[in-house]
Structures are given as C-alpha cells and as structure tokens.
Amino acid sequence: MVGFAAKSRPDHNRSVSCRAGLQATIHYWKPILHSSMTVPGTQTLPVDVVLQDAVAHHQAERFEQEMNALLALFAEGQYAEAGTLAHVLTERFPLNAFGWKALGTVLKQTGRCEEALAPMLRTVALSPNDPEPYNSMGTVLIYLGQLKEAEAGFSRALKIMPNYAEALSNQGNLLRNLGQLDRAEASCRHALNIKPELAEAYGNLGNTLKDLGRLDEAEANYRQALKINAASIEALSNLGVTLQDLGRLAEAEGSCLQALQIKPDFAEAYSNLGNVLKDNSRLEEAECGFRRALQIKPEYAEAHSNLLFVLNYDPLLPAADLYVEHQQW
Known about the structure:
Helix content is about 75%, strand content about 0%. The protein is mainly α.
C-alpha cells in the first residue's frame, strides 16, 4: 500500500451532504435533460445513462479521496482509523477490490488474522490476477496453521508473478515450517537474488540456517536484515535466540531487550529473553519474562512450558502452587 500520493482527508459530513445534494440535482435535471436531448429527426439520447455517468464520476472522485486518506492513515500507523475507513469503502464500493484488500491488510497488521481471511478471500475473488492478496493470504494461513492452503496461496501468487520476491521469501518461511529446509533456503536465496534489499528474506533465511545448525551464517543474515531495517523486531528477537545458542548470553539479552524497546508487547521476545535469563541462572527474572509473555499471549504454549520448567527449580514455591500452575497448562 505504499507508493500512492496521499491527498487531504475528506470530510465525512460534507460527503453525506454532497451525496444528498447530488441525488436532488439528478431529480431536478432528469426531465429537463430528457426534453433538451430530444432532437427532431434523431433518436432520444439515453438520459439514465448520462446521469449514471455523472454519478459514476462523482463516486470515482470520492473513492479516490477516501482511498488516499486511507493510505495516509496506514502510512502514519493509524491502523484503527484506517480499518474504519476500509470498512466504509467496502460498504460503499463492495465490488472494488481495493477496500477489501486494505481491510485485510489492516487486520493482518494488527494481529487479527482470523478476521483478515474473509476480506482477503473477497479480494482474490474480485481481483484474481493480483498476486499481492494471494501472498498476504498465504502469510495469514501460516499463522492460522493452515499450511497446505498457504502453499496454494504462494503458488498462485508466483504463477501470476514468478519473480515476486516477497512471495518467494514467504514461501521459504512456509517450507521451513514444513521441515523442507533445503527448499526453504533455496526459495529465500532466490528472493534475495531478485531483491537484495528485502530484509524479511534475510530474516527467513536466517531462521532456516538456524534450524540447519549453521548458526554463524544465521547470525550474519539476521545482522544483514537489521542493517536494512534496524527496527525489525523479528530479526532482533531471532538474533537473540541464535546468540544464546552460540553461548553469547550478554549479547543475546541485549538483542531481546532492543526488540522490546521497539515493541513492548512482543510476547515472543519476552519468552526468548526468559530463555536467555534461564540459561544465565537468573531464574526469578526468567519467570518474570515468561509470565509477561503469557500476559500478552495467554495461549502461548512454549512460554507456559518454559515457565513450568523454571518453577520446578524454585525451592520457595509451595507444591500446591506448582500444582495449580500445571493445571493451567
């Protein structure tokens, strides 16, 4: 959704007033136009078509204004307002793919992946030759654990645009989730051959290399991702995990803390930080990290498992309290 010049946001009340005024104008002008366009010896011009063209022109102008306002809101990170305007666009222009595409993107950006799926499906139905919604839908389906369906989404995107670097990178992430690490590495490297500045591809390649046990290479790729995008919280957090595996606990802690400075509600970074502190025998602090992760993301099974592990080594925790914690698992 980047690359469009944003115009000033339209005034909603003014839009309602304009719409009412337009309908009144059409009602007034229709009989006049009908009489004035009837010329002796010629066929009467289709007045309704002329009026529909006028309405269409007005709607197109309003759509452009609201589209630019939505893009500006998204660029400013005002996702709640962007989502509201996207909903409005889908209601006013239900057959235009842009509103549905924007709505799906905003919902995905705000972590509402289950809700994002429906507008994404509507987008691909309305715009079947646009590769972007297939790619976005694939990432949402990975999050929802529907890996087979995600693979179909990426395959469709790449069939439309074979050199779509973002889809190749995301396909690499999917293949990693499927345990196909060699194919995952190849897909990420293909993406980087096409678009060397794609930070996400370096991050996905780093994850794959980490799973392959090639930790030094993984670290190098995370650092390259951060060189391109210093605010990549995923790269920072995953770099922390890799540094932990390399035994460099102080650096690992710093990387996780840096991710949390950027996104204080990043559950995965709290869990990763907890693991680093656990390995450093700082069990009380590790417990705090895991509990904070679970506050943000209560269904986070890995964080809960790690919390129980730490609690098992707490000599001051009563057995009854430890039992309650296990029951919650």
